[in-house]
Amino acid sequence: MNAVIAVFLGLMAVVSAGALVVPHQQQQQSGDNDWDFILFVQRWPASACVNGHVTGGQAATPQKCSFPPEMAPNAWLMHGIWPTKTGTEGPVNCDKTAKWDINPVEPLVPELKADWSNLESNTTYDSFWSHEWLKHGTCAQNLPALVGEFNFFNVPLTLREKYYDFHAALANKNILPDANRKYSHDAFAAALQTAYGSTAEVWCAYDKGTKEHYVAEIRLCLTKTFDLMDCPDSEVKPKSTLGTSSCPTSQELIYAPVKPTGVPILPRPTRPTPQ
């Protein structure tokens, strides 16, 4: 049995057993939530802050960037799981009446702070999760495994921990964060193809001052059963509304190290065990 499908079946069993929280306010939906596949997106924190503000952040006005002490060191961070209709960047904001409720995800907060960190200064610690839930989570409520806040965050954290350690996948091909070294787009693509057996998309942030491209995001495409699939060609766009774009294939890319902030890194949290 495919390992990712096995995880999906396990997740569904937990849903059926009632161990995952399904909040009552998600019974009603509005807007178009018709979609075909899931974008599983992680971001590299050094590149998310390449211009001094958060690339692909939650606010319309760019926010200054900071690394919280809970952030996992040398790790790609979750950006989100995005229900996607082929050829679009949506749907988004499918339930205009939805409200963010932190209570269902309280058991996940230590892990969310480490692996789904909010990099925007002067915002509440949960504001990024709220943004992801309202924009993308409300559009995932027609998939049983992602119903409710807890499931929407717990499923990708589980998949990330078990299968999608991008730092390790790249390191296995000697692609490491290094301020004095550049890599080709093909090197990244080949490393990810080797690790996962399907195409992955590498997205970059562009530094207007240095005119350099910094590897900022890696996107995998998943089916509604959380199996890997090749991303549709029409999903690859030259630019995104998030401030990132497909990395150029003709220029070398920078995979920048995360600079120390002087703030001690807190101990890595352990995953909660469903009761």
Automatic annotation (TrEMBL):
<protein>
    <submittedName>
        <fullName>Ribonuclease Oy</fullName>
    </submittedName>
</protein>
<feature type="signal peptide">
    <location>
        <begin position="1"/>
        <end position="17"/>
    </location>
</feature>
<dbReference type="Pfam" id="PF00445">
    <property type="entry name" value="Ribonuclease_T2"/>
</dbReference>
<dbReference type="GO" id="GO:0033897">
    <property type="term" value="F:ribonuclease T2 activity"/>
</dbReference>
<dbReference type="InterPro" id="IPR036430">
    <property type="entry name" value="RNase_T2-like_sf"/>
</dbReference>
<dbReference type="InterPro" id="IPR033130">
    <property type="entry name" value="RNase_T2_His_AS_2"/>
</dbReference>
<comment type="similarity">
    <text>Belongs to the RNase T2 family.</text>
</comment>
<dbReference type="GO" id="GO:0003723">
    <property type="term" value="F:RNA binding"/>
</dbReference>
<dbReference type="InterPro" id="IPR001568">
    <property type="entry name" value="RNase_T2-like"/>
</dbReference>
<keyword id="KW-0732">Signal</keyword>
<dbReference type="GO" id="GO:0006401">
    <property type="term" value="P:RNA catabolic process"/>
</dbReference>
<dbReference type="GO" id="GO:0005576">
    <property type="term" value="C:extracellular region"/>
</dbReference>
